[in-house]
Amino acid sequence: MSELRKDPITGRWVIISTELARRPSDFELDPVVLSPDPACPFCEGNEAQTPAEISSDRTTGAANQPGWQLRVIPNRFPVLRVEGTLDREGEGLFDKMNGIGAHEVIIETPRHEDTLATMGDAAVERVLRAFRDRVLDLKKDSRFRYVIIFKNHGRAAGAKLAHTCSQLIALPIVPREVREEVDGAKAHYQVKERCVFCDVLRQELTDRRRIVAENTDMVAMSPYAPRFPFETWIMPRRHRARFEDAEPHEFASLARMLGDLLRRMDRMLEHPPYNLLIHTAPVAEDAGAYYHWHVEVIPKLTRVAGFEWATGFYLNPTAPEEAAQVLRDARMSGS
7: number of CA atoms within 13 Å, CB side? Predict the structure, then answer.
């Protein structure tokens, strides 16, 4: 029988359709296969095809020249622009403001066929530190209320180019999805004087059915009420509200865990397209007591359809306990 499960943080309900239970072989998988592309603007040697870099990590060469290991550039087609003022105003009961923000691209490697799953731990850590550095810089702008970091891997996940990269968008408002999560965590803290994420982590480490992997600082797990099949969260063991405030050793641990998780997904889900999201506290909000930053990785194995849009419920055909077991087994099958 199917189950209705409630997310303990946001209060969001999902339906785990156990009658339609699916293992990886039951999905219509859309593997991401990378092959050389001399015309790719993100490859080393094609720097002139991109906007001038904001920053880079280099072994040799000058800015906007070969010799880099990672580059941060403005998005050529930004959804928001830095220049200007917000000019908030109302039109009767409607509210609007100018499209002020920042939209940047982190080119994670000069090599076209690399992915976060194939890059070494040090290279993945370099990407995470670039995220941190850009967030710290953008937080200095008082117009910004939230900085979102995300990755679209594969065309089915929204990627326009095959070359592995991530994006960062600074917003003048806190997005609704973030607000629901932060407010849910705050409500839990007001009643119990404990972080709900810490409570979830303690319970999952005791139960262990939904644990995928763990190391000194990080735990990868299938959430109790996942929206999508094989949705996996990576949570730091240490309570902290903001990703950018993590300790150096935590970035190293996260790099190892993220690479490990993505390799497991590649092995068991045949190199799936996926979205990666970093959830962190809003810029100007004192959420230190009740919010807990984390990473969400969501393989694109199903599509959101009419039922989800009409109800706000998510329909997931794979129980998280089953998904966690499959990903745990990936380590053994790949040994």
Answer: 21
The class level of CATH for 3-83+95-333 reads: alpha beta
pTM for the structure as a whole: 0.94
Closest CA to 276 of 291, 265, 284: 265
pLDDT digits (tens, 9 = 90+) for 173-222: 999 999 999 999 999 999 999 999 999 999 999 999 999 999 999 999 99
Q: CA 136, 200, 145: angle at the middle one, nearest 5?
A: 25
Beta bridge partners of 13: 6
The backbone torsions φ and ψ at residue 219, rounded to the nearest 5 degrees and listed phi first, read -130, 125
The upper half-sphere exposure of residue 170, i.e. CA atoms within 13 Å in the direction of its Cβ, equals 23
- Indicate the residue type of 264: R
| Pair 221, 213: CB distance under 8 Å | no
Strand duo 218-221 + 232-236: pairing: antiparallel
CA 17 to the chain's CA centroid: 25
* Backbone phi, psi, residue 57, to 5°: -115, 115
Beta bridge partners of 163: none
Nearest 5°: the CA angle 275, 300, 81 is 35
CA angle 109, 114, 115 (to 5 degrees): 95
Show me where the domains of the chain are located: 3-83+95-333
Of 333, 302, 327, the residue nearest 26 (C-alpha): 302
- Three-state secondary-structure class, residue 71: strand
